[in-house]
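Tip: read the tokens left to right.
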């Protein structure tokens, strides 16, 4: 089981962590939400929990709890900029359906 991060996303996360002044990495998880059932959650992590999986790439730790990993195994976290819009993009091979607004997904 694995979650990956692109170099572009890792650079952006390092920038956020540097500006924040603390943190060991970025937590990627899921929560029940939206039209399709699940939504991604991103938050900075100051402390890794015992049951967390840690994936380290390009000098950035992506931390995932065991429950979320079931839904996002194989996901690549990217950072994209299209015109005036920029943000993190989740390339999750497990997704079978997404809502029209792109805020939630179903596996």
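Filled-in amino acids:
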């Amino acid at each position: 089981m694995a979650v990956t991060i692109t170099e572009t996303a890792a650079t952006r996360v390092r920038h956020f962590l540097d500006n924040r002044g603390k943190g060991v990495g970025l937590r990627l998880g899921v929560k029940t939400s939206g039209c399709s059932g699940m939504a991604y959650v991103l938050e900075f992590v100051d402390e890794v929990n015992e049951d967390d999986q840690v994936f380290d790439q390009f000098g950035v730790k992506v931390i995932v709890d065991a429950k979320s990993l079931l839904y996002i195994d194989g996901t690549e976290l990217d950072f994209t900029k299209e015109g005036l819009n920029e943000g993190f993009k989740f390339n999750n091979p497990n997704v079978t359906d997404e809502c029209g607004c792109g805020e939630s997904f179903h596996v």
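Residues 34 and 104 are 5 Å apart (CA to CA). The chain has a mean pLDDT of 89.
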